[in-house]
Amino acid sequence: MPSNPDRARNLNALSMDLYQISMAAACHVNKMTHAATFELYVPELPPGRSFLVAAGIQPALEYLSELRFEPGDVGFLRSIPSLKDVPDDFFSWLESFRFTGSVWSVDEGTPLFAAEPIMRVQAPIIEAQLIETVLLSLIDFQTAVASKAARLVLAAGTHGVVEFGGRRAHGTEAAQQAARASFIAGVRATSNVEASRRWGIPVMGTMGHEFVKVCASEAQAFQYYSKAFPADALLLIDTVDVAAATRQAIAFGESLHGVRIDAGDILAVSQEVRGVLDGAGCMKTEIIASGDLDEHRIAELVNDNAPVDLYGVGAELVTSRDAPILNGVFRVVEIDSKKGPRYPKSFAPGKEVVPGRKQIFRKRDAAGRTVHDRVVQAGEMPEADEEALLRKVMVDGELQATFPTLAELSRRCVREVKNLPADVLRLTGASPYEVIFSEKLLELKKKVLSQE
Questions:
Q1: CB 438 within 8 A of CB 376
Q2: Distance between CA atoms of residues 259 and 243, nearest Å
Q3: DSSP string for 351-372
Q4: At 129, phi and psi to the nearest 5?
């Protein structure tokens, strides 16, 4: 795997923790063939976050549909010392493995909250044990980045945000995933060329300081760069002297598409540069600001009417620096048995589970704005003006969903985030969003916890 290398190129069958294999082996040896339901969710929001944006779902589903153990994968597993006593027929089973479960998920770009299932998987226990690591890796990371990106987009308002973080990401695959998640949440473009090729995300870039430094002067650097891009030059103007560089840049007239400021007092510098550009008749030339920006600094600049058209954000976005980890979990909530469903319970601190298969109902007002969510037992009926968020996307291992384009997901995500209550969207001091657990769910939890 994968059959299409552009879909999940670095995710072969061994992209998982060893204990997934070990548990599957134990299931196989003990003939644990019955099904169970697992749910993937984030138990608590990170500090400073009032909502999440679900992302990474399509890549996760494609991984499930394409998961195969190649002969070389199985050969390596046979060589692991801790697996030396596992019966040979387990490895034969791996060679013919296909995921046969069914999956429900929210749509990518959906705003979500603590303890709400992003994905529900119903599958034979042995299969469900194998997929935890990759599902959490794909969905946790991209959800973290999309959630950060949504805050940046909110802060920028009518101004655009561009993802500039490839060099700060934790590896090239993470950089591409971050570009994808950012775009879903409303970021307009990426600087990552491979992410653009894989997913059709608009790509953009300017020039770097080192190009200016290797030329004899800023003026020469601008001349050389504009020679390569005669109709669409984006010039970096803060390497030596911003005022002088701006005067040199306006000599290119209408061919000057934009200038970038990457350091210093962005408010004061952008005001000065805008004045020079407009005075020279370059009213259409855009100003791009970058350099350790986050949503709070962008909000300040927007509030101060900084004449910035685009904000380029790097490390803060692709690492979600203030909340880099989502402690998502993939936990069993219901187990099939001959006597009917059996519900697991755990009293370990931080490991509590609300048992039972779940659905999320989202209530909206007459204007389409979100009012609250109800987490209910699967099978409960919605109330008036409620919509179900989890939909069936995979049946017996076969994808049933048709995926929107990332541009369509982005438009929907931006709209859905803006439809959240205004006090939930505040960058600081946000109010918690109301998530209600149905009486049936709470009664089931109470019953399960009271059982011996």
A1: yes
A2: 12
A3: -----S-EEEEEEE-TTS-EEE
A4: -65, -25
